[in-house]
Amino acid sequence: MMGTRVSYLDEQQPLQGYLAAPVSARDLPGVLIVPSWLNINESICRRADRLAELGYAAFVVDLFGAGVRPGPPQSPMTVVGPFLDDRLRFRRRLLAGLKAFQQRPECNADSIAAIGYCIGGCGVLELARAAAPLRGVVSMHGILSTPIAASSKTALPKILVLHGDADPVVLLESVIVFRDEMRLADANWQINIYGGARHSFTGEGAVGDRTPEAGLHTQTEARSWQTTIEFLREVFD
């Protein structure tokens, strides 16, 4: 296996993603990973490595800038607020990462899916709404609301939303509004709701007692990962 840093730009902003793929790999199905507010850390890179072990090329996009690693005492909403307030800027940042990934020889540019965690889950849904060239997207405990709703005139990729029933950040009302948006857009969508799981049930984005609204839920982490792998097999079939 190999893991390497990949430098790229969003306009003038230097960014540095993390690429994982089998050694000497070429033209593999690709998985774009959009991290939580903690950006590119060891945990999210391990997820990319796990996907590479399954035969994918995986690329973690850089949300905030090369070497920028948010965390306490910053609050998650302070960090991600600028992207939530400006979805076009958010989409541009993510599309820069997607373009960098498409240009890698390890990745088949026509066969890419995306997985996002927390703000990253919001991000992959924004990519879907923008009709980015993706086979499918998976939102893990992501923010579901948007000021730029999906349109029935746009061909969306397949969408899978994995949500914790005990999530105090993304309430059930948001899930219902998202469902209605998907219906109106005539999208191919699925929502799984996991009992007892809070925000960041995968552990991505949770920082102990600094984020009481979030935390790892071991059973849901295992189930959601298995569901994601099955989804990837479906969209790449």
Question: Can you put this structure into words, describing what you see?
Answer:
The two termini are 24 Å apart. The model has no long low-confidence stretch (mean pLDDT 97). Helix 2 packs across helix 3 and helix 3 crosses helix 4. This protein has 237 residues and is of the alpha/beta class.
* Tally of individual helices: 6
Shape: globular
Strand order of the largest sheet: 1-2-4-3-5-6-7-8
Termini, distance in Å? 24 Å
Mean pLDDT: 97
Q: What labels would you give this structure?
A:
237 residues; alpha/beta; eight-stranded mixed sheet; 8 strands; 34% helix; 24% strand
Quick summary:
34% of the residues lie in helices and 24% in strands.
In terms of topology, how is this protein built?
Layout: E1 2-10, E2 13-21, E3 28-34, H1 42-53, E4 57-60, H2 76-85, H3 87-102, E5 107-117, H4 119-129, E6 136-140, E7 158-164, H5 172-184, E8 189-194, H6 218-235
Parallel strand pairs: 3-4, 3-5, 5-6, 6-7, 7-8
Antiparallel strand pairs: 1-2, 2-4
Helix pairs in contact: 2-3, 3-4
